[in-house]
Amino acid sequence: MDVAGRLRELGISLPTVAPPIASYIPVVVAGNLAFVSGQIGRRGDHVLFRGHVGDTVSVEQGAQAAREGALSALAAMNAEGLLDRIVRVVKVTGFVASARGFADQPKVVNGASDLLVQVFGEPGKHARSSVGVAELPLGAPVEVEFVFEIR
Asked: How is the chain split into domains, by residue range?
């Protein structure tokens, strides 16, 4: 699949790959799977939103942050020369910094899932977990990690 071409067709540009903020690498390939480390919604050093979804961050803003995390994952795959080798999206795990009593984590992580289906079509449909957590790095409201099958 020409993923870069599909992104251009959709008018979507990938962000610059942000350097890791701790001891990890953005992408690890094991066999035919590429594991992308957790991505937060940021452009460069700027975190798009900060806080907890259901408190200072709306569901819509959380979904936007998840979408940006998916774009960052695609950018990381591109930086490794793997973008056009993606066969399908296997798994998405979304962590949502949630206000007490907030239970709409799946709606937030849809921001990432919907983008992947828009880009990849049927191969973009994936297994998924959406988990509420107390805090995330840099005060981000959402962190999303990905597993892609590659050829």
From this structure: 3-12+39-150
Tell me how far apart the alpha carbons of residues 124 and 49 are, in angstroms, rounded to a whole number.
26
In this structure, are residues 108 and 130 in contact, taking their beta carbons and an 8 Å threshold? yes
- Quick check: pTM over 0.90? yes
Write the class of the CATH domain 3-12+39-150.
Answer: alpha beta
| 134 burial type by CB count under 10 A (0-12 exposed, 13-18 middle, 19+ buried) | exposed
Residue 149 bridge partners (DSSP): 33, 88
Contacts of 115 (CB under 8 A, 6+ apart): 67, 70, 71
pLDDT tens digits, 20-34: 888 999 999 999 999
User: Strand 127-133 to strand 86-97: parallel, antiparallel, or no bridges (unpaired)?
Assistant: parallel
